[in-house]
Write a structure and sequence with these properties.
Layout lengths: L4 H9 L17 E7 L3 H14 L4 E4 L15 E2 L9 H12 L1 H5 L10 E5 L2 H16 L5 E4 H7 L14 E5 L3 E2 L2 H14 L3 E3 L4 E7 L2 E7 L2 E10 L5 H7 L6 E13 L7 E4 L4 E5 L4 E12 L7 H14 L8 E12 L5 E4 L5 E5 L9 H14 L13 H4 L16
Parallel strand pairs: 1-2, 1-11, 2-8, 4-13, 11-18
Antiparallel strand pairs: 3-7, 4-6, 5-6, 9-10, 10-11, 12-15, 12-16, 13-14, 14-15, 17-18
Helix pairs in contact: 2-7, 2-10, 3-10
């Protein structure tokens, strides 16, 4: 079924009885050309582009729970491409361009809202750093605007401009950035992949890998063995545990990143704002809740929950930036498991184990990268060569020293 105004009207007149399931809950077949381990945004996007762009449709996406139950449903929904280094900027800008056409591509309302992101600066040195970043963005063909204090005040007059410790001096604006509905992105890619013949297998946990000699030739799961020509791993914070089943030790750590939603308010925060004197970022959802977050918890964990000291730290950052939110009540908070690479940048590459491919190390940037990650991972799986925009995301860069140290925000909290 293609969604349209006419389909809504027809089903409204027929008692809503004509709708079909968004995707099939498929049973696993004995074998596939490609198995993708991980039913989040990256895994489903990879399956969709494998089928749509490369014509490889004998594909299975295997998820141990239900699709989107991991980090895809546990983030703050920000999309942007305001990066500095050549290894990152072209990739995230490609992702931004895919976001801009995603709803038409998938025939699904992913609620992409290009409301802009404003990174505040609070010192002369930080202004110079943001000017450098903005210039690098412009050289790469990406929109950016360095704003002074008066320009920021005109946009957000309620911010604490005269904070004794952190006065706001201006900000770097990317107007094309914004937010998207995380669940809808997962559902849209699942629907698109399913329509092209991809099997989406839920409640199927991978417990090991099938081998012939040194090569991976399939997976062992809670629903039986499944063979494959290639196995692709896209499991975010569980990357190290899954890779360990294949005998790999990855250069990353798993940390919890908490996010928060307040009670609903009338429209107040039009775009996305980041606090330059602390790790705090905030936007407002279509339901009116303020959505915000901050630093990772400072210890390794696979639990999807956080701790109270980080909650206090995040709320302190919010109060320093926007004192008016002090009377708000938190509606809920949650934790996602971040696969923090040592340089804060991702990995899209084949592994030293034949037949095994890796998509991991997304740190804070996984959601915004979803379309380009799927596109580039699908290209790697289909052609055996990295996509041009993801050529720097090699696994062996930690051995050769070709790091992509965007901000030093790897797995060490003291470096953030």
């Amino acid at each position: 079924m293609r969604y349209s105004f006419l389909s809504i009207l027809a089903n409204g007149l027929s008692g809503q009885k004509g709708w079909t399931p968004t995707w099939r809950d498929a049973a696993p077949k004995p074998g596939y050309d490609v198995i993708i381990v991980g039913g989040g945004g990256h895994g489903l996007a990879t399956a969709y582009y494998l089928a749509k762009v490369h014509g490889i449709r004998n594909v299975a996406v295997i998820e141990k729970s239900v699709i989107g139950s991991g980090n895809a449903g546990r983030n703050t929904t920000i999309i942007r491409s305001n990066y500095l280094l050549p290894g990152n900027e072209p990739f995230y800008e490609w992702s931004m361009k895919l976001w801009e056409g995603l709803e038409q591509e998938l025939n699904y309302n992913a609620m992409v809202s290009q409301r802009g992101i404003l990174n505040l600066f609070h010192s002369d040195a930080q202004r110079d750093a943001y000017a450098r970043r903005g210039n690098a963005m412009r050289l790469a063909g990406v929109d950016s605007k360095l704003m002074d204090k008066a320009g920021v005040r005109a946009m957000y007059p309620f911010l604490n401009f005269d904070n004794a410790r952190f006065p706001i001096q201006g900000g770097l604006l990317q107007a094309r950035a914004g937010t998207a509905r995380h669940d809808a992105v997962v559902w849209g890619y699942a629907r698109g992949a399913d329509r092209l013949g991809v099997d989406i297998v839920q409640n199927c946990e991978v417990t090991g890998f099938l081998r012939e000699g040194d090569a991976i030739v399939g997976v062992e799961t809670s629903r039986g063995d499944i063979r494959a020509g290639k196995v692709a791993v896209a499991v975010a914070g569980s990357s190290s545990r899954v890779a360990a089943m294949a005998g790999l030790r990855l250069p990353m750590e798993s940390h919890v990143l908490q996010a928060f939603v307040s009670e609903g308010l009338k429209p107040m925060v039009d775009g996305v704002i980041t606090f330059g004197a602390g790790h705090f970022y905030i936007s407002q959802s279509d339901k009116g809740g303020l959505v915000f977050g901050g630093d990772i918890d400072g210890y390794n964990s696979y639990a999807q929950r956080g701790n109270l000291p980080v909650i206090e730290d995040v709320c302190e950052g919010g109060m320093a930036l926007m004192p008016r939110i002090g009377r708000l009540r938190l509606l809920r908070h949650w934790g996602g498991i971040m696969d923090m690479s040592m340089d804060g940048s991702p990995i899209i590459d084949r592994t030293p184990v034949p037949g095994l491919y890796l998509n991991a190390g997304w740190c804070y940037g996984g959601f915004k990268a979803t379309p380009a990650s799927g596109w580039c991972f699908a290209h790697l799986l289909a052609t055996g060569a990295p996509h041009d925009t993801a050529g720097a995301f090699r696994l062996d860069r930690f051995r050769t020293g070709h790091l992509i140290d965007e901000k030093g925000v790897g797995a060490q909290p003291n470096l953030h």
